[in-house]
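Our collaborator T.R. sent over the components below with a one-line note: 'Predict the complex.' Nothing else. No constraints on interfaces, no templates requested, no preferences about which chain binds where. So this is a plain run: every listed entity goes in together, and whatever single assembly comes back becomes the starting point for the next discussion.
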Amino acid sequence: MNYAKIQEAFPQTTEYKKKSQLPEMWRRLKKNKTAMLGLAIIVIILLAAIFADLIVPYSLAVEQNPSARLKGPSSEHWFGTDAYGRDIFARIIHGARFSLLTGIAAVVVGFILGGVLGAAAGYYGGIADSVIMRILDTIMCIPFLVLALAIVAALGTGLVNVLLALMLSSVPTYARIVRSAILTVVDQDFIEAARACGTPNSVIIFKHVMPNAIGPIIVQTTMSVGMMIKDAAAMSFLGMGIQPPSPEWGAMLSEGKSYMMYAAHIVVIPGLAIAVTALALNLMGDGLRDVLDPRLKD
Amino acid sequence: MSKYIIKRLLIMIPTLMLITMIVFGIMCLTPSSPGRVILGEKADQAAVDELNQRLGVNDPFLIRYFNYLKGILKGDLGNSYRSNRPVRDDILLRLPNTLILTTAAIGLALLIGIPIGVLSAVKQYSVYDMLGTTFAMFMASVPTFWLSLMAIVLFSLKLKWLPSNGLDSFRHFILPTVTLALGAAASLVRLTRTTMLETIRQDYIRTAYSKGQSPGIIIFRHALNNALLPVITSAGMQFGGIMGSAVVLEQVFAINGIGTMITEAIRMKDIPQAMGCSLVLSFLFMVIMLAVDLLYAFIDPRVKARYVKG
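Returned assembly:
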């Protein structure tokens, strides 16, 4: 909408200023202590992942040191060493990159694809809606890990194929969210008015309809990243994901399980890293859900 | 009601066909040749090509798919590339272990999740509520396979109370079942709490209290029935997640189930076995969802009336 042209046509109307709701949302989010704790943890993990090379050299995470095998936590190795003498703290810090990258990339791509499909299904309706939702519902009938393993069986192990599997599993969820949001507004007068003005369908969908779905999408995205990190770790644990010697948290658990009788720290610490990351994202997601729920605004 | 059941069973057929097409389509993407997998890396290329031709690998996708579908309709899921045994026989041998594990886990999850959720809702903002929601949040964040490793370290290696692998006796079931159940219980706690909070604020509950009815009867006879409907749907959906987690847990606890079968099949590129396992697990999930829908009708007479009306 061109507000300048509206003002020019109707100068007697009061000046319209679009007010941002972000300051109010931030104020309400700050009141939620658990959400802020989750946000703080995520920020710390993100910074650790971004500045991993400055915190600890990558060589410590991948180079083997047989003389320092299976050592417990100490001043020299804060989280101890693994079966190959590699520093676990270094592997955790550098592994944060793989985990966060996997989680965020899978969710973003899943959202884009799912959003487009859901928007098309909801806006155009009819056969398009039936065909798209039938296919996506069928994908949801296949348990995620089974689908992911089938993809890895076909295409091979590695980061890209893990991302493909994770992304495919998140597409139906986002498609449903976007489709629901579109169905709530698609028959409303302002949409009909926009069509009557000759607004292209794509503009109607992305400018007028999608903002209705932003709240549920943000909440789903935050919580999905945690789920994707856990699922990627599960695939690496099975040997189907990111391969050693890359310091991925799930792969660390897989390598360490043979030694947990002698050195439990090898499996305790990577698992705690996954759990703390997922917990922080869940806490933040819960807080965002409360903030974005209009019923709780006052 | 029987018409509705028949209608749902008929609707399952095209969905199953679509699942077979998706799984078959994914497996067709594999670059490796079955002939090479069966005869080995050192086999002569001519022999490999001849075997591939015999297996129909070079046929068009639709011809291969329809041949596979024909086999499924006759109960034939193909032969394993490695052992040449029918995939169906291997699945039937291992399926009971996975079924017992996942069914026991979902049952335990309901037994744990529903009471904690009800208590959290009824005693909202109390210490019970805080403990319940903390438990749910923690269990929802912890990876199930890591929880099972920790359980093995504590109960098998340190305390030596429970065995860490196999399924030979009831004691062998405890650790895998409990670790599978705790993850599913987390979401059931949160959902039960939410639905109970909505239900106990309804007018008819206030009326029951004002009539002097005891809180126990109000909660468990009036409120819980209505609050349980979304929880049952969620439990059905959780079954899919539990089946996926069982695939991983069978590796941790060395259980001879469908999970170990599918991971071995993928490692050895045994496509018929991987496909057979994927289809069976997906089919089981669909049957569970149908059972959940029908259970709805028994719990809620309004839903039954809707089903009967069609």
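Summary for T.R.: Residues 88-124 of chain A form the longest helix (37 residues).
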